């Protein structure tokens, strides 16, 4: 633990660094592989949509039921002729969901369930959702997601620039695709709680991304007035400078969500917690990954396609090649650049990283005894 703490402190101070942008092809390949897997899972298995989206009925039995989940599923499928999803709640009651049935059939299904489960029909609570209402819920969910995306792109384009807005949008789509694909592979039911979880993780993913973008924007002011660092080098500085903060906030956020998912949903049997906790858990992890490995390297790619930034990169690489030919130590693009590294640059390079170290005053030492006698 002490070694990890020392490594984090050294990353923050810029004593060490990792070339995230230089290895971006690896991260792009990993993200493409995970995304293809998620899309295949979504295509082959599909989403287990809840009754709020498909329409149907949900029956809740009294507490302390002796029937098992498998028995209740068989009773519900025989009574309705449709697939049923049964969850055992923490108080011992059963929640039986049957999607795609007409609300007119709910009374007959309820009576048959009361006979099979040997309980009073009046003690079974029934919640009915019509198919038209389920379609409205699904449409509103997609509309809300689309509006959120548009507003995010507009804000980032105004606050930063369109390239950063585009990179953030790609990272958000990356996070959504992975989360939905995991839902399809695991088979968890999609409910309005799932939609809430998706919107929550999008905001969290943007938080980490905006922190890096803000640092990158500040450090790349007047970048073309110097010839020591490329845009990718300074992008690495921004990532390494905020890396420890991103890891800490992600771990702290994942711990309570993991408790909801594995303890609340798994051990305590609170199945309703799975709806929101899985989307939060997967989305938080994917959001932290995309803000570091996808969004910022993609911005560097887009910026270095500009003529000015491309010309700067050529000048920097030519200068490094010349220094290497003369036997001078090579600059490491992975290291987190410190303010002192710009002291030997021309005066107009000072704006790249903020205030420079002031040179020693020529008057320093005047009036002090020199040790010589006249």
Automatic annotation (TrEMBL):
Compositionally biased intervals (Basic residues): 363-374
UniProt keyword list: Cell membrane, Membrane, Protein transport, Translocation, Transmembrane, Transmembrane helix, Transport
Keyword Transport: yes or no? yes
Compositional bias of type Acidic residues: which residue ranges? 338-348
Q: How does it sit in the membrane?
A: Multi-pass membrane protein
Q: Where is this region: Disordered?
A: 322-374
Return the Low complexity bias intervals. Answer: 322-335
Q: Which domain of life is it from?
A: Bacteria
Principal cellular location given in the protein's record = membrane
Where in the sequence is the signal peptide annotated?
none
Tell me where it resides: Cell membrane
Keyword presence, tRNA processing: no
Q: Where is the Protein export membrane protein SecD/SecF C-terminal domain?
A: 111-304
Stretches that traverse the bilayer: 26-44, 141-158, 165-188, 194-216, 247-270, 276-300
Report the sequence similarity comment from the record.
Belongs to the SecD/SecF family. SecF subfamily.
What role does it play? Part of the Sec protein translocase complex. Interacts with the SecYEG preprotein conducting channel. SecDF uses the proton motive force (PMF) to complete protein translocation after the ATP-dependent function of SecA.
Tell me how this protein assembles.
Answer: Forms a complex with SecD. Part of the essential Sec protein translocation apparatus which comprises SecA, SecYEG and auxiliary proteins SecDF. Other proteins may also be involved.
Its recorded name reads Protein-export membrane protein SecF
Native organism is Streptomyces prunicolor
Q: Which gene encodes it?
A: secF
């Amino acid at each position: 633990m002490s070694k990890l703490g020392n490594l984090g402190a050294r990353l923050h101070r810029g004593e060490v660094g990792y070339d995230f942008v230089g290895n971006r092809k690896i991260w792009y390949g990993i993200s493409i592989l995970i995304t293809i897997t998620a899309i295949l899972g979504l295509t082959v298995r599909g989403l287990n949509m809840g009754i709020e989206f498909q329409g149907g009925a949900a029956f809740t039995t009294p507490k302390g039921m002796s029937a098992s989940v498998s028995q209740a599923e068989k009773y519900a499928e025989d009574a309705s002729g449709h697939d049923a999803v049964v969850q055992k709640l923490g108080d011992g009651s059963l929640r039986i969901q049957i999607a795609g049935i007409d609300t007119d059939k709910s009374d007959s299904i309820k009576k048959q369930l009361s006979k099979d489960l040997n309980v009073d029909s009046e003690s079974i609570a029934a919640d009915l959702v019509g198919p038209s209402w389920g379609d409205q819920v699904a449409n509103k969910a997609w509309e809300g997601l689309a509006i959120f995306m548009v507003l995010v792109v507009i804000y980032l384009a105004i606050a930063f620039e369109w390239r950063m807005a585009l990179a953030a949008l790609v990272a958000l789509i990356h996070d959504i695709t992975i989360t939905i694909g995991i839902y399809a592979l695991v088979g968890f039911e999609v409910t309005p709680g799932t939609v809430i979880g998706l919107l929550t993780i999008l905001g969290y993913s943007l938080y980490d991304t905006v922190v890096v973008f803000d640092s990158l924007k500040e450090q790349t002011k007047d970048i073309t007035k110097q010839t020591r660092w490329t845009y990718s080098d300074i992008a690495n500085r921004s990532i390494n400078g905020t890396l420890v903060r991103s890891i800490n906030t992600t771990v702290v956020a994942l711990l309570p969500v993991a408790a909801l998912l594995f303890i609340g949903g798994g051990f305590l049997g609170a199945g309703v917690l799975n709806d929101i906790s899985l989307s939060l858990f997967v989305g938080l992890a994917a959001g932290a990954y995309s803000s570091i490995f996808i969004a910022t390297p993609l911005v560097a790619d887009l910026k270095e396609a500009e003529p000015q930034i491309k010309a700067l990169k050529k000048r920097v690489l030519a200068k490094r090649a010349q220094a290497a030919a003369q036997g001078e130590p090579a600059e490491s693009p992975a290291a987190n650049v410190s303010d002192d590294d710009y002291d030997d640059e021309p005066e107009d390079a000072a704006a790249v990283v903020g205030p420079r170290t002031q040179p020693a005053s020529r008057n320093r030492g005047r009036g002090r005894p020199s040790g010589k006698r006249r």
